[in-house]
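ENTRY TYPE: protein
WANTED: fold as tokens:
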Amino acid sequence: AGAAAEARFISSAKGKGLFATKNIRKGETVFVERPVVSSQFLWNALYNYRACDHCLRALETAEENAQRLLGRRSLVLPHPEQCSIRKDLHQQCPRCQVTYCSAECRQAALEQYHQVLCLGPSRDDPTHPLNKLQEAWRNMHYPPETSSIMLMARMVATIKQAKDKEWWIKAFSQFCSKTANEEEEIVHKLLGDKFKGQLELLRLLFTEALYDEYLSRWFTPEGFRSLFALIGTNGQGIGTSSLSQWVHACDALDLPMLQREELDAFIDQLYKDIEKESGEFLNCEGSGLYVLQSCCNHSCIPNAETSFPENNFLLHLTALEDIEAGEEICISYLDCCQRERSRHSRNKILRENYLFTCSCPKCLAQADDADVTSDEEEEGEGETDDAELEDEMTDV
């Protein structure tokens, strides 16, 4: 990950933080990180958002992607040579037919977790324990999705397959953990009011599908809740899209002015039409656990942001300002609109979704502001739902 940043312990209240080890210029990539484990969301996959089963790279061509989102098979995209998808490299697992973007991803998945999770000929058998687990999860967790039970399944499978099991357990234990009360809150947030019964049902199905003596603690009610809270707290949304890759490539084309205007108008209209048809669900979406990124604390005036410019699970952290050696690197857990709201509104969202109150310089400067939200903010109050948070998390 290069040595531009390192994690350090701050305090028991704040936990870890990420700090610059050298001066970083605005616009520079602080690091590129691959997740220890990641997984596409289950509804996302069910609705034919086709992604590599390992790295989440979008598998459709930009044109197929646009046709599906528009519900219009006749659409033709100009500049098809700007699409980066290489179908000739795609491979399937010979036993269960899940698709990968390359031989490398198929191999990586097989070596890390897929031997345990491969459904083989039972892929479409609703009575298979793993299918029962996924079905139960989908019935509890409708879009917009923020997490996946399969992230936990891949953690267990990884340790089951590993020669050095302790190394992986250590790797997973680096992620911030919560107190029992906080865990309850996170589970409640993910599963809603019936969470106690639902969590127990998931635990029984999870045990039936994946039980392992070595990890027996993870299958107890307390251990399972902790594991669940761990992915709820640390899961970073991942978004990929062959269409957005194509758009970025088109933006970079050197075109005569008239052609440039035509292309820009075409793209603008395309996105408007897609929004009417598919709403905000444009990307292949999933989540992953990233060791360094999970150490980044929140600020309402962040000096860095995450993105997925390679159309796969590789997370890029980019500096939004010059950052000096020794300075803490912070990202924002809120989207742009939410960051513009009052301190009271911002902290309401942060408390509900991330269980903390912010004390960044902006919040401290506004500490004496009245604790009421203005009228127009009250009206917008209902809109700040998980979809918006999720949007920010998965910006491609």
